[in-house]
Amino acid sequence: MARKRKGIKLNGWLVIDKPLDMGSTQVVGKCRWLTKAQKVGHGGTLDPLATGILPIAFGEATKTIPFIMDARKTYEFTVTFGEARSTDDGEGEVIATSDHRPTEADIRAALPAFMGRITQVPPIYSAVKIGGRRAYDLARAGEEVKVKSREVDIFSLDLISCDGHQANLRTTCGKGTYVRSLARDLAVKIGTVGYVSALRRTRVGPFDLKLSISLEKLEELSHSAPPETWILPVVTVLDDILALAVTEEQAKILSHGQKLAVSDHLEPGIIRVMTGTRLVALCDVEITPETTIIKPVRVFNI
């Protein structure tokens, strides 16, 4: 017999505006403690020195975390020129210096090189795994760390302001992008060194700052308002996926993990299946000469 999970059953998303000097895991723990929820996870780590959007998944929403992890993200960040740091942010030791300070024209001229699909090397103090161990664990242990380069997508990169010593920028990027690496490489491109001295995530997929709340606000809401007034539906992160409506009887078949033949004209790929406003499953569409079959790959108990 399955062990009953302790806590309140909550299903949905919450958008937390993560404060400075608090790790993502700490935020998850605080959310679990405040809501007494059975199951909580997050959709994309933010460094302790970063602030902004941290999507928190409750219950069945944890099954949709991969979709938010793959979503585009927008960051606003400050690059401080003249020093390189071991962590590529303000936490690390100074490992190089430069007297050169770029002009606005220098910075703008360098930006196009960092647009589109680019190659970058993640910071040695990062969660990238090397031989099964996190790079930051190896670095903290004093071991030599060689992080492989990777391709990432930069959809936009704009200069907001600069004063010679610092530059404020905004970027929208794809999965796996390290803004710290972007700042480091930009500084090198313009003939100096630099590091990220401030970092704020302003959007993750459908979640922006307008939807976010502070941990203090969550504490207030958890004591004064029912969850349905502040939690976002599980389906929020699946709005870009084609929806197929089914009957309650068909939903029951899918809920048991069984395939279902449908008459709808569908393309191969993943769809979300709904009955009314209830999310039933994520299904893979299989096209055969005789019929179209949908096969559940994620079933939701909502």
Summarize the structure.
The chain is α+β, with helices and mostly antiparallel strands. The protein contains 7 helices and 18 strands.
Question: What would you say this structure looks like, in words?
Answer:
With 302 residues, the protein is an alpha+beta fold. The chain folds into three domains: 12-70 and 206-236, Pseudouridine synthase; 73-204, Pseudouridine synthase, CATH 3.30.2350.10; 241-299, PUA domain (Archaeosine Trna-guanine Transglycosylase, Chain: A, domain 4, Roll), CATH 2.30.130. Helix content is 20%, strand content 36%. It has seven helices and 18 strands. The chain has helices at 24-35, 65-69, 104-110, 135-140, 179-189, 215-224, 248-255; strands at 12-18, 40-42, 50-58, 73-81, 83-85, 94-97, 116-120, 129-130, 133-134, 150-162, 166-173, 194-204, 207-208, 243-245, 260-262, 269-275, 278-287, 292-299. Strands 1, 2, 3, 4, 7, 10, 11, 12 and 13 form a nine-stranded mixed β-sheet that branches. A hairpin with a 2-residue loop joins strand 16 (269-275) and strand 17. Helix 1 runs parallel beside helix 6. The longest helix has 12 residues, at 24-35. It is globular and about 70 Å long. The two termini are 21 Å apart. The mean pLDDT is 92.
